[in-house]
Design a protein that fits this description.
- The protein is α+β, with helices and mostly antiparallel strands and 445 residues long.
- The protein has 13 helices and 23 strands.
- The chain has 2 domains: 335 residues, 2-Layer Sandwich (BirA Bifunctional Protein, domain 2); 97 residues, Anticodon-binding domain (Rossmann fold).
- The strands form 6 sheets. Strands 3, 7, 8, 9, 10, 11, 12, 13 and 16 form a 9-stranded mixed β-sheet that branches.
- Helix 2 crosses helix 5 and helix 2 packs across helix 9.
- The longest helix is centred in the middle third of the chain and has 21 residues.
- The radius of gyration is 24 Å and the shape is globular.
- The protein starts with 20 loop residues before the first helix and ends with a helix.
Length: 445
C-alpha cells in the first residue's frame, strides 16, 4: 500500500478524552474514531490489526478442534427467560422490543443461543464431545465506558462453548482451551498469565482469567514471579491427549496467581517473599466450567451409553478480540508511539523514501515494494512529498516492526537502512539482503 493513497488520519495532538496510552495512541494513529460513548468506528489501520488478531484466534481454535459458526447479535428474550438470566443479568443487558412488542436483547454473551442450537440437533453421546465457537460483536451497557476499546460498550469477542457427556470430559475441554489460549497469546507477542478468578454472572466452579501485566490494568493481581518465566514456545501438543493438556495446565497454574477478587493472603504468604509480586493486569480472556447449569435449565440432554437421558456438561471460553488491541499497545509502546509485535502488525514493513521524485530513490523503493509483495508480505510505502522527520514520526507512531529507509546517499554505496522499531538498532544492507532478512523473520512466525 502506498501511503499517499491510504486513509490514515493521524493526529498530532492527543484528544482530551483519552486517559490511557492505548486509547491515546489508537486515536492518534488513526485506528479508531469514537462515535458515541464506548462505541467506535474501526478505521483502516485499526481494522487491519483487528483482522490479524481475529485470524490468529481462529487458527488456534481450529487447531484445537473447535468448530466455528456465527450467531445473531440480537436475541429473543424467551431463551434468556428459560435460563433465568433475563431479569437477573442487570442493567448491562440492553433490552428492547421489536415492532410486534416482543422482548429482545443485544447479545452480551451467547450461552443460551449455543445451548438452543445444541439441543435442537444433538441427541446422542455418539456426537460428543463437541465445541462450537464464534467471533462476533457483543454489547454490554457499561455505566462508565472508558479507556477506549479496553472497556467499551460494543466489542468483538470470541466465545466458545463445549458440550460433553461427563464432568471429566468437560474438564479436559477446559484444559484444552487453556492450552490453546496460551498458544494464541504467545503468537501475538503477549504473555497472558492464567489466574484463578471469580466467575461473575456466568456462574461456574472452575474459572481462570488470562491477564496481561500493565500499569493501566483494571485489576490488582498477586502472583509468584516464577510464572513470568514460563513460555509455551514451539512445543507440540496433542489436543486429544488428556495427559498432555493436564500437564500444561498444572505447569501454568501450580504457582500462585490470582486477581484481587480471589486473592488469599494466607496462601500468598506461602510464596517465598522474594518471589511475591503485586501488579495491575488487563483481562484478555477467561475460561469457565459450569457443569449442567444451562443444560438443566434449557433441556439440553443426550442419550448416554445405557439409554438414559442426561444433561450435558458445559463450559464457556472467551477472548476479548477487540480488547486485545488495547492490551497489545499497553504492553508494546514507547514515547514515540506503538510497537507492534510481528504477529499482529498491520503492515509487515515500512518503506520510507527520503527524496521522493529522485529517479534512483523512486526506483529502489518500487523494487523493494515489489519484492515484498511477491513474497506475500504487505509493505507500507511512504511516498508522500513530506519532510523526512514527518515520515519517521508517522512510522514510529503507527508502530510497524521494521522500516527500510531509502535515500540517494545510501544508494550511491549500494545500501538501504533497515531499522528495528523495538530496539531502534539500524544496519546498512544491500536492498536484496534487507528484503531477505525481513522475509526470514516473518517466515519463522
Amino acid at each position: 500500500m502506498r501511503l499517499s493513497r491510504y486513509f490514515l488520519p493521524v493526529l498530532k495532538e492527543t484528544p482530551s478524552e483519552a486517559q490511557i496510552v492505548s486509547h491515546r495512541l489508537m486515536l492518534r494513529a488513526g485506528m479508531i474514531r469514537q462515535q458515541s460513548a464506548g462505541i467506535y468506528s474501526w478505521l483502516p489501520l485499526g481494522l487491519k490489526v483487528l483482522k490479524r488478531v481475529e485470524q490468529i484466534v481462529n487458527e488456534e481454535q481450529q487447531r484445537a478442534g473447535h468448530i466455528p459458526l456465527l450467531m445473531p447479535t440480537l436475541q429473543s428474550a424467551d431463551l434468556w427467560r428459560e435460563s433465568g438470566r433475563f431479569d437477573a443479568y442487570g442493567e448491562e443487558l440492553l433490552r428492547m422490543k421489536d415492532r410486534h412488542d416482543r422482548d429482545m436483547l443485544y447479545s452480551p454473551t451467547a450461552e443460551e443461543l449455543f445451548t438452543d442450537v445444541f439441543r435442537s440437533y444433538v441427541k446422542s453421546y455418539k456426537d460428543l464431545p463437541l465445541t462450537l465457537y464464534q467471533i462476533q460483536w457483543k454489547f454490554r451497557d457499561e455505566i462508565r465506558p472508558r479507556f477506549g476499546v479496553m472497556r467499551g460498550r460494543e466489542f468483538l469477542m470470541k466465545d466458545g462453548y463445549n458440550f460433553d457427556l461427563t464432568k471429566q470430559d468437560a474438564l479436559h475441554a477446559y484444559n484444552r482451551h487453556l492450552v490453546s489460549y496460551l498458544r494464541t497469546y504467545e503468537r501475538m507477542g503477549l504473555q497472558a498469565i492464567p489466574m484463578r478468578a471469580d466467575s461473575g454472572p456466568i456462574g461456574g466452579d472452575n474459572t481462570h482469567e488470562f491477564l496481561v501485566l500493565a500499569e493501566t490494568g483494571e485489576s490488582e493481581v498477586f502472583y509468584d514471579s516464577e510464572i513470568t518465566d514460563l513460555t509455551f514456545g514451539d512445543r507440540q501438543i496433542d489436543y486429544d491427549s488428556v495427559e498432555q493438556c493436564q500437564a500444561v495446565l498444572e505447569e501454568f497454574t501450580s504457582r500462585y496467581a490470582r486477581t484481587d477478587e480471589t486473592h488469599d493472603e494466607a496462601e500468598f504468604a506461602k510464596v517465598p517473599e522474594e518471589r511475591r509480586r503485586t501488579a495491575r493486569g488487563i483481562e484478555v480472556g477467561q475460561i469457565f466450567y459450569f457443569g449442567t447449569k444451562y443444560s438443566d435449565a434449557m433441556g439440553a440432554t443426550v442419550q448416554d451409553r445405557e439409554g438414559n437421558q442426561v444433561a450435558v456438561h458445559m463450559g464457556s471460553h472467551g477472548i476479548g478480540v477487540s480488547r486485545l488491541l488495547g492490551a497489545l499497545i499497553e504492553a508494546n509502546h514507547d514515547d514515540n508511539g506503538i510497537i507492534w509485535p510481528e504477529g499482529v502488525t498491520p503492515f509487515h514493513v515500512g518503506i520510507v523514501n527520503l527524496k521522493q521524485g529522485d529517479v534512483q530513490a523512486d526506483a529502489a523503493c518500487q523494487s523493494l515494494y515489489d519484492s515484498f509483495t511477491a513474497l506475500g508480505l504487505e509493505p507500507l510505502y511512504d511516498d508522500r512529498k513530506e519532510r523526512a522527520g514527518g515520515k519517521f514520526a508517522t512510522m514510529d507512531l503507527i508502530g510497524l516492526p521494521w522500516r527500510i529507509t531509502v535515500g540517494p546517499r545510501g544508494l550511491k554505496n549500494g545500501v538501504v537502512e533497515l531499522t528495528s522499531r523495538r530496539t531502534g538498532a539500524s544496519e546498512e544492507l544491500p536492498p536484496e539482503q534487507a528484503v531477505e532478512k525481513v522475509a526470514k523473520i516473518y517466515a519463522g512466525l
